[in-house]
Design goal:
about 15% helix, seven-stranded parallel beta sheet, Immunoglobulin-like, Alpha-Beta Plaits, five-stranded mixed beta sheet, 10 helices, mainly beta
C-alpha cells in the first residue's frame, strides 16, 4: 500500500478491441503535445511571483502562455517545436519557478483479446445487490468521468449526464473513441430501467469531462484541468481510467487539490503486469485500483504492488458501448469505475467522523476496510465488497499475533504488553500473544515490558485475516551513580562549586565539597573535576549496572607564571648592549635595539639569570619570580681587554756579551710598545733587573755584558701595555740558561 506521497503509477488501462490508455511513446521517449511548429510545457511559479515578474521570465525563456489551469495555478506554455525539454529545464533553473515539465501525451493503445464472462458478473462478485438493499445512492452524488467522452444519446446514460466539459481539441463532446462510454456505464448506468446494464453507483449522476481526444490520447494539462474543473463544479468522485508512465507534479497538484475539496479520486493501476508505478494512480490521494477476474485472481496483465490500494472486477466486463450499444472490455480501466460507483453509494452512508468538514476520507477508509481478502498479494486491502462497505454485511475483523523475544539472547519475554492503541494482549510463557477483533486498517502496534525498551511496528490488518508482528525487545540497563569529594591539594579543605562531569552529565560540589552524578549508564568514563583557580584533574571511573562508583579529586592551585625583564648596558659608558643573551637556565631571550629583554611564562621560583655577549664578561644574578609577577633585573656587562703573553725568552751569546730576548704576543701577533720588566739571577746569587720596551715585532732585548760562566734564570716580573692585559697563564714567564767556560 502507498506510504505517503510518492510517484504515481499509470492510470487504468483497457484490454479489449479498444486500446488502453497509455503513453504513445516508450517511457524513455515520451510524446509531447505539439502543433505544426510548437510544443507545450507546463509551468508553475512560486506563490509570491507577481504577474509582471512571470511575464518577464516567459520573455527571457521564450515561452508563450496559452492558458492557465486555475485552482492549481499551472500555466500551459507553447515553445518552439523540438525545444520542450530544453525550455522546461530553463524554466526549472529559475529559483522563482516551482516546477516546469513538458506537457506529455497520454493515449489509448491495443491490448489482448480476453474470453467473455456472463454479463456483469462483477456486480454479483462485489455484492452490489446487497448494497442496493441498503442504498441506491443519490442523484446529488456526481461521478466525473474524465475520459474520451460519453455517448450523449445512449439510453442507459443520457439522462444521467448533468454537465459536459471538453478539454481536448475534438469538436464534439460525444465519445468518438468509445472508451469513456464503457467506463461510465460501469460506474453509473441507469439501474432498474429494464434496459441494458446496471451501474454500481445506481442513482448517481455523471459529469462528462472529455480529457482524451477522439484518437484516445490527451495531455497532462488536459487531465489536470479536468480534475480541477470537476472538483470546482461539484463532483464528489473523479474516475481516471487513464494514466502515464512518468511522474508529474502538475498531476499531483491537481489530485491534491481535488482531495482538499472533499473529492474521492479513483485511478486505474495500469495493465503492464508489473509493479511499475502508474500516474496519477500512485499518488497518495488517489485510490489505485488493480483488476481481478471472476475467479478472484489477478489477471497477468494487471499492475500490482505495495502502492496499489484495492482491486475490483476488470476482466471481461459487460457495459455500455458508443452508438447506444453494449459489449465486453477488460482492463484496470474497467476496475476503476467499479470503485468510483461504490464510492457514490458510500457517500450516502457516512458522516464526518473526524470533524475536518469533509467525508472523502471516511468514504475511502470504508471502501478499503470492507474489502475481501482474496489471498492475492500486491492488491493492498483486497477486492472491494460493496455490501460490507455500505454496512449491509458486517466487516469481519482481523487479528494481530506474534512473539516477543529478548534482543540479547532470543529468549521469550512473558508478560509483555502488546497494543494496537485500543486493544491490548499479554504474552504467555512462550512470549506469544494475539490481539483479536481488530477492524481492518493500519495500526502502530507497540510492545512493552518493564525493564525493556518499548518497540513499535506498523501493521496492516485485512478483514478476516491475521497479521504477524514479532517484536525483539532490548533490555533497559539500570543506571549507576558516580559520587565523591573535591578537596584542595594544599590543605585538604573542601572545594565548593567545583564542576565534575563524565562528559555527558555534570554535577557541582556542595558546601562539603561533595558531588553526585546520577543516571549514569554502565560503562567506563573519564571523569573530570574543575574549578577556576585550580588545575583540572581527571580519573577513569567504571560504573556497573545499578551501582555507585566513588571518585575523589584533589585539585592543585593553578600557578600563574610570571616573567623576568630588564636591560643590559655597557659598564664603561652606560650604552645599551644589543643582542645580549639572557637566560634563566630554561628559557632564553635576546636584548632588542634598546637593550631591553623579557623572559615570559616563568613559573614562580628562584633562578640564576645570566646575561652574556661575545666580547663582554658574563654576569649572573639571582632572581626570585612570584606567581603572576614580573621580576625586574638589569645587567651591566664589562667589555673584555685583549690578552697578551710572553711567547718566549731566549739567551743570546755574542762574543763576551750575554743578551736576553723576550717576545710578547697576542692572538693576532707581536705587541708593540709593551713595557717588560725582567729579573736575571745567577747561580752565584747575583741579581740584575732590567726594563725595556718591545719593538714592532714584539721583541724586547736586554744586555748583560761580559757574563761569568755559571747558571742563570731569567724571569719576567712585569708586562704592561695600554689596551692589553697580561695573561700570565699563557706562554712562559721564566727560563734557565747555563753559560760554560768554553764560551768565555
Amino acid at each position: 500500500m502507498k506510504r505517503g506521497i510518492i510517484a504515481l503509477a499509470i492510470a487504468g488501462l483497457l484490454i479489449s478491441s479498444f486500446p488502453a490508455i497509455v503513453f504513445a511513446d516508450p517511457p524513455d521517449n515520451p510524446g509531447l503535445v505539439s502543433g505544426f511548429s510548437s510544443e507545450q510545457i507546463l509551468v508553475k511559479f512560486k506563490p509570491d511571483v507577481t504577474l509582471p515578474e512571470a511575464a518577464e521570465i516567459h520573455r527571457r525563456v521564450g515561452g508563450q502562455v496559452k492558458e492557465t489551469i486555475f485552482g492549481i495555478g499551472v500555466q500551459v506554455v507553447t515553445v518552439p517545436k523540438g525545444q520542450a525539454m530544453a525550455k522546461a529545464k530553463a524554466y526549472s533553473a529559475n529559483p522563482r519557478v516551482a516546477y516546469a515539465e513538458p506537457d506529455f501525451v497520454v493515449e489509448a493503445s491495443g491490448t489482448p483479446n480476453d474470453p467473455g464472462f456472463p454479463s456483469q458478473w462483477g456486480m454479483v462478485k462485489v455484492q452490489a445487490p446487497q448494497a442496493w438493499d441498503v442504498t441506491t445512492g443519490s442523484p446529488s452524488i456526481t461521478i466525473a468521468i474524465l475520459d474520451t467522452g460519453v455517448d450523449l444519446g445512449h439510453p442507459d446514460l443520457a439522462v444521467k449526464i448533468i454537465s459536459n466539459k471538453n478539454f481536448t481539441t475534438s469538436a464534439t463532446m460525444a465519445d468518438v473513441h468509445g472508451h469513456g462510454t464503457h467506463v461510465a456505464g460501469i460506474a453509473a448506468a441507469i439501474t432498474n430501467n429494464a434496459i441494458g446494464v446496471a451501474g454500481l453507483g445506481c442513482d448517481a449522476t455523471i459529469m462528462n469531462v472529455k480529457v482524451l481526444g477522439d484518437t484516445g490520447s490527451g495531455t497532462y494539462s488536459a487531465v489536470a484541468s479536468g480534475i480541477v474543473w470537476a472538483a470546482d463544479n461539484g463532483a464528489e468522485i473523479i474516475n481516471l481510467s487513464v494514466g502515464g508512465s512518468l511522474a508529474s507534479p502538475t498531476l499531483e497538484d491537481a489530485v491534491d487539490y481535488a482531495w482538499s475539496k472533499g473529492v474521492v479520486v479513483v485511478a486505474a493501476a495500469g495493465n503492464g503486469g508489473s509493479t511499475t508505478p502508474s500516474y496519477p494512480a500512485y499518488y497518495a490521494n488517489c485510490i489505485a485500483v488493480a483488476a481481478t477476474d471472476a475467479n478472484d485472481t489477478r489477471p497477468s496483465w494487471s499492475n500490482y504492488g505495495d502502492w496499489v490500494d484495492v482491486a475490483a472486477p476488470g476482466a471481461s466486463i459487460y457495459s455500455t458501448l458508443k452508438l447506444s450499444g453494449y459489449g465486453y472490455k477488460s482492463g484496470t480501466s474497467m476496475a476503476s469505475p467499479h470503485v468510483a460507483g461504490l464510492a457514490a453509494l458510500v457517500f450516502t452512508t457516512v458522516s464526518d467522523e473526524n470533524g475536518d468538514g469533509k467525508v472523502n476520507d471516511e468514504v475511502r477508509n470504508r471502501i478499503q476496510a470492507a474489502c475481501d481478502n482474496i489471498g492475492v498479494s500486491g492488491i493492498g486491502y483486497g477486492r472491494i465488497n460493496a455490501g460490507r462497505a455500505v454496512a449491509s454485511a458486517p466487516v469481519p475483523p482481523g487479528a494481530i499475533t506474534g512473539q516477543v523475544t529478548d534482543a540479547e539472547d532470543g529468549s521469550a519475554v512473558p508478560g509483555a504488553q502488546v497494543t494496537d492503541g485500543i486493544r491490548t494482549a499479554l504474552t504467555d510463557a512462550a512470549g506469544t500473544y494475539t490481539v483479536g477483533d481488530v477492524p481492518p486498517g493500519t495500526y502502530e502496534v507497540v510492545a512493552s515490558k518493564e525493564g525493556y525498551q518499548t518497540s513499535s511496528l506498523t501493521v496492516t490488518v485485512l478483514s478476516a485475516t491475521t497479521a504477524l508482528a514479532d517484536f525483539s525487545l532490548t533490555k533497559v540497563l539500570v543506571p549507576g551513580v558516580i559520587t565523591g569529594s573535591v578537596t584542595d591539594a594544599k590543605d585538604g579543605s573542601p572545594i565548593v562549586g567545583a564542576a565534575v562531569t563524565d562528559g555527558t552529565r555534570t554535577a557541582t560540589t556542595d558546601a562539603s565539597g561533595t558531588y553526585i552524578i546520577a543516571d549514569v549508564p554502565p560503562g567506563s568514563y573519564d571523569v573530570t573535576a574543575s574549578k577556576s583557580g585550580y588545575e583540572n584533574s581527571s580519573l577513569t571511573v567504571t560504573v556497573s549496572e545499578g551501582t555507585t562508583a566513588v571518585s575523589d579529586f584533589s585539585l592543585n592551585h593553578l600557578i600563574i607564571p610570571g616573567s623576568i625583564a630588564g636591560s643590559v648596558t655597557n659598564s664603561k659608558d652606560g650604552s645599551v648592549v644589543v643582542g645580549a643573551t639572557v637566560t634563566d637556565g630554561t628559557r632564553t631571550t635576546t636584548t632588542d635595539a634598546t637593550g631591553k629583554y623579557a623572559i615570559a611564562n616563568v613559573p614562580a621560583g628562584t633562578y640564576q639569570v645570566t646575561a652574556s655577549k661575545s666580547g663582554y664578561a658574563s654576569v649572573t644574578s639571582t632572581v626570585a619570580v612570584v606567581s603572576g609577577g614580573t621580576a625586574s633585573t638589569n645587567f651591566s656587562l664589562t667589555p673584555k681587554t685583549p690578552a697578551m703573553w710572553v711567547e718566549g725568552i731566549r739567551f743570546i751569546k755574542n762574543g763576551k756579551n750575554l743578551f736576553i730576548e723576550v717576545r710578547v704576543v697576542t692572538a693576532s701577533g707581536g705587541v708593540t710598545g709593551a713595557q717588560v720588566g725582567l729579573m736575571l739571577e745567577s747561580s752565584s746569587a747575583q741579581v740584575w733587573n732590567f726594563s725595556g720596551t718591545t719593538d714592532t715585532a714584539g721583541l724586547a732585548r736586554f744586555k748583560l755584558g761580559k757574563a761569568p760562566a755559571g747558571g742563570y734564570v731569567a724571569t719576567v716580573t712585569g708586562l704592561t701595555c695600554s689596551g692589553f692585559t697580561w695573561d700570565a697563564s699563557k706562554g712562559v714567564t721564566a727560563i734557565s740558561y747555563t753559560l760554560g767556560r768554553c764560551n768565555n
